[in-house]
Design brief:
The chain is mostly helical. It has a single domain (5-119), classed as Up-down Bundle (Methane Monooxygenase Hydroxylase, Chain G, domain 1). The protein has 4 helices and no strands. The protein has helices at 5-9, 11-34, 65-89, 91-119. Helix 3 (65-89) packs antiparallel against helix 4.
Length: 125
């Protein structure tokens, strides 16, 4: 049986995935088994102490949706910049077609920005 050259090309990727899975499983197991374990009577060590005031209610509370909306808009602006930089570098090589495609992209992006603005998503209370 002879070696398949296509499979040999993928061997480094398979090794990398294997190493990643090994560490993804090994590190949490080691952390649980070798890490410090809280004692049963050490409840006072688990209480927050930063302000000295007894906490009222739950420490975990739900964030309003506006935080997620702003985060998604930030990612969209990042993607816009990521697409604009290579286009600007190769603008002269693409010619009029590249200008037209980027024009359509920018018009759609600006329409989306206007829609977000009109919906009031950018307003902070």
């Amino acid at each position: 049986m002879e070696n398949n050259p296509i499979l040999i090309e993928y061997l480094p990727i398979a090794v990398l995935i294997g190493i990643a899975l090994f560490f993804a499983i090994l590190l949490p197991v080691l952390s649980l088994n070798l890490g410090p374990k809280p004692k049963e009577n050490a409840r006072s060590k688990l209480i927050p102490y930063e302000s000295g005031i007894v906490a009222i209610g739950e420490a975990q509370r739900r964030l309003p949706v506006k935080f997620y909306r702003i985060a998604v808009l930030f990612i969209l602006f990042d993607v816009d910049i990521i697409l604009l930089v290579p286009w600007a570098v190769t603008f002269r090589q693409m010619g009029l077609y590249g200008l037209a495609v980027m024009g359509v992209f920018m018009v759609l992006f600006i329409l989306g920005d206007v829609w977000v603005w009109k919906k009031g998503i950018l307003e902070w209370e």
